[in-house]
Automatic annotation (TrEMBL):
One of its GO terms (molecular function) is nucleoside triphosphate diphosphatase activity. This is XTP/dITP diphosphohydrolase. Residues 151-226 form the NTP pyrophosphohydrolase MazG-like domain. GO terms for biological process: dATP catabolic process; dGTP catabolic process; dTTP catabolic process; dUTP catabolic process; response to stress; TTP catabolic process; UTP catabolic process. It comes from Couchioplanes caeruleus. Residues 227-260 are annotated as: Disordered. The lineage of its organism: Bacteria, Bacillati, Actinomycetota, Actinomycetes, Micromonosporales. Keywords: Hydrolase. InterPro entries: MazG-like_dom, NTP-PPase_MazG-like_N, NTP_PyrPHydrolase_MazG. Pfam families: MazG.
Length: 338
């Protein structure tokens, strides 16, 4: 709800908070109205984006001495706000020392002016991702971290694999704090690799290209959601995804095309069997699994393992996840002595 114009001109102190991740001039209607009605607009750092934006809009901003202690600044602002409408442009760090000093000084005074907060802009969802992109760019740029600057896409592969397995461990054990940390580590590897990709001499790419590619894929493979295609929405979502994927990659002639050879063996077995089952090759698959691999004509351990993977997938069980759970249970028993 918008403020009454008269109340905007009433004596008091307003702390104007803004998002550091949005253009500084994208302020709410209430924020601009409050700025226009204020008798005094003050800030501590003249170079802050919001200060520049307010000045560019034709409003005067008084800059306080950066060296002034928070307690002294709080007293000065409250004295001004006793008789005038004052707006303080909060710095990007949130001015925590000043906020505390204002609370202490207001409590000490018998008749302190009103102090309120105005939210001039909010961080959009995903704004923290921009911080990660900024941090990685700083680390990779000249004057940043020598180790980060020396890495290549190839040298980061072991770290990407390791961080992925650590994320798997956190997810399967449902450790909330570990999940947050390990997903962050995986995300950092993605941003790191994209930052290196921007330096390629031939056909460079950056994090925006990476994000655009996955958004295009999601929208193209989910027309029932993004294009209001009711026929697709009511159908089998997995089959719809696979059909859209096949249309995107017409050069693939086998259901096994595109499965990475570097996948761990058990996960690769699951992927191959799932692909064959979706391709409605169950009859042929059962025959293939029954065919001995060894020269002796008897089923090998590999035969039997693959058959067990097939049985697990038929009942919707992920054998790799089950095996990891069993190993964790075994490890706990060994460590506990039972």
């Amino acid at each position: 709800m918008s403020e009454n114009p008269a109340s905007l001109r009433a004596p008091g102190l307003s702390l104007l908070h803004t998002s550091a991740r949005l253009p500084a001039d994208l302020l709410t209607r209430e924020a601009w109205a409050s700025l226009a009605a204020a008798d005094v607009v003050q800030a501590r750092r003249p170079g802050e984006p919001v200060v520049s934006a307010v000045i560019a809009a034709g409003l005067h901003v008084e800059v306080q001495d950066v060296a002034m202690p928070a307690e002294g600044l709080a007293g000065t602002l409250l004295d001004l706000a006793s008789e005038r409408a004052v707006i303080w442009l909060v710095s990007r760090d949130g001015d925590p020392d000043l906020t505390k000093a204002l609370a202490d000084e207001s409590t000490r005074r018998a008749q302190a002016p009103s102090v309120r907060s105005i939210r001039g802009s909010w961080d959009p969802a995903g704004a923290g991702f921009l911080d990660l992109v900024w941090a990685m760019d700083r680390l990779r740029s000249p004057g940043g971290c020598p180790w980060d600057g020396a890495q290549t896409q190839r040298s980061l592969v072991p770290y990407l694999i390791e961080e992925t397995y650590e994320a798997v461990e956190a997810l399967e054990t449902d450790a909330r704090d570990d999940i947050v940390e390990e997903l962050g580590d995986v995300l950092m590897q993605v941003v790191f690799l994209a930052r290196i990709g921007a330096e390629r001499a031939d056909d460079p790419f950056d994090i925006d290209d990476v994000c655009a590619a996955i958004v295009t894929k999601l929208v193209g493979r989910q027309p029932g959601v993004f294009k209001n295609d009711e026929a697709r929405r009511s159908g089998d979502p997995v089959q719809g995804w696979e059909s859209a994927k096949a249309a995107e990659k017409p050069a693939r002639s086998s259901p096994l095309d595109g499965i990475p050879a570097a996948m761990p063996t058990l996960e690769r077995a699951v992927k191959i069997l799932d692909r064959l089952r979706r391709a409605e090759a169950d009859a042929d698959l059962a025959e293939l699994l029954a065919t001995p691999i060894g020269a002796s004509g008897t089923p090998t351990i590999g035969n039997r393992l693959l058959a067990e993977v097939y049985k697990a997938r038929e009942v919707g069980v992920d054998p790799a996840s089950e095996l990891r759970d069993a190993l964790r249970h075994l490890e706990r028993r060994v460590v506990s002595g039972r």
